[in-house]
Write a structure and sequence with these properties.
Strand content: 5-15%
Radius of gyration: 20 Å
Helix content: 40-55%
Distance between the termini: 23 Å
Pfam families: URO-D
Number of strands: 8
Shape: globular
Number of helices: 16
Number of domains: 1
Structural class: alpha/beta
Protein name: Uroporphyrinogen decarboxylase family protein
Organism: Clostridium tanneri
CATH topology: TIM Barrel
CATH class: Alpha Beta
Length: about 375
């Protein structure tokens, strides 16, 4: 147990040094894994997402299978929570889908424009509670079980010597509204009723910040807070709209996270090259820019390398279709070129069909083992 505790402290120290852009003994490696661990350990995806205890076993067994990584992505599956973030129905393996098919957001127009007024009049928390129970197929019993068991699950992972990289999460309001309305309808709403959308986003952001702070308070030594913003890419909006409806809230969310003393980890889907300069506003060593491989990681280094940690960027295609040598060489080059303030990781999630030997090659590039 003492050796495991020492290993935990070594890993979390290494991660914190990378985030603060400090000199390190080596580059930390933290692959973003969920479904992959189920396939790697021979567990059906249906069992992984529908049986919370089984998902916890998978996360522990799979993390140990990977070896000397520096943190776990989490301690159990959060697949059943996905629909809540998008205000959309969710299709799950073993329920609406075959046992080994990945879970899917079923994006349709469930939310109406009248719901904007409901949020403004009653608050986002009240709106969510009613919406989840009456309009989308959220398994509220499963959500309750997750909330009850997750703290112990996190402690179990810590006892195995692995920090939890994502100790909390918060979503940008764009993900809720564009999911519940659908992206197309929401874009029309932005043009037709911009002031109302802005007021609704104010309410959602304040509610989410309050919830995030409570989660962080109860978390087991959280390393970062995950900032979800799948629909916030600068390429989706003109610059003026992006500043008003995206950056304004991303900045407020990030500043609230920094106030807790925990770094913000931006999970950046799609191409953010046009918005990179904005991130220089945050204090040095307080954030992580985590790319999915679409944003050129070398441009991130050029723009933000002296301000914040960069996390990435071994592409899903390499992990699923490449060879161990290709993955190892790419990972080694990244470590060399990114230098201080870098965490080696997959570009977004390791795909469920990735080759175990490829994932281990990525890890070996960082650990030298």
């Amino acid at each position: 147990m003492e050796a495991t505790k020492e290993l935990y402290n070594e890993r979390i120290t290494r991660i914190k040094k990378a985030i603060k852009l400090e000199k390190n003994d080596r580059t930390p490696v933290i692959p973003f894994v969920d479904a992959f661990l189920a396939t790697a350990t021979g567990v059906k995806l249906s069992d992984f997402v529908l049986d919370l205890n089984k998902s916890h076993e998978v996360m522990i067994d799979g993390t140990k299978l990977l070896g000397d990584i520096d943190a776990a992505s989490g301690s159990c599956s959060t697949a059943q929570l996905s629909g809540m973030i998008c205000l959309s129905n969710l299709k799950l393996p073993g329920r609406e889908l075959p046992d080994n098919m990945l879970w899917q957001i079923d994006e349709r127009e469930v939310m109406t424009t009248d719901d904007y007024d409901t949020i403004l009049n009653n608050g986002f928390e009240v709106f969510q509670a009613n919406y989840h129970s009456t309009r989308i197929n959220v398994d509220l019993a499963a959500v309750g079980e997750w909330a009850l068991k997750c703290p112990q699950f996190d402690k179990d992972m810590k006892d195995e010597g692995y920090p939890i990289y994502l100790g909390g999460a918060i979503s940008h309001p764009i993900d809720y509204l564009s999911g519940g309305r659908t992206m197309g309808k929401f874009m029309v709403d932005l043009r037709r009723m911009p002031d109302k959308i802005e007021a609704v986003m104010d309410v959602i952001t304040d509610a989410n910040i309050k919830a995030m702070k409570q989660v962080v308070k109860n978390a087991v030594e959280p390393v970062t807070v995950f900032v979800a913003m799948a629909r916030a890419c600068p390429d989706f909006y003109n610059p003026k709209m992006w500043e008003r409806f995206i950056w304004k809230y991303l900045k407020k969310i990030t500043e609230a996270i920094i106030e807790t003393g925990i770094p913000a980890s931006f999970h950046v889907d799609a191409n953010w090259e046009r918005g990179l300069d904005y991130f220089r506003e945050f204090p040095k060593g307080t954030c992580v820019f985590e790319t999915d491989g679409t944003t050129d990681i070398y441009k991130i280094k050029e723009k933000l390398g002296d301000r914040m940690c960069i996390k990435g960027d071994v592409h899903a295609a390499k992990l699923a279709l490449g060879t161990p040598d290709e993955v190892y060489n790419y990972s080694t080059q990244l470590i060399k070129d990114m230098g201080t303030g870098f965490i080696l990781s997959s570009g977004c999630s390791v795909p469920a069909n990735a080759k175990l030997e490829n994932v281990k090659a990525m890890i070996a590039a960082a650990t030298g083992k």
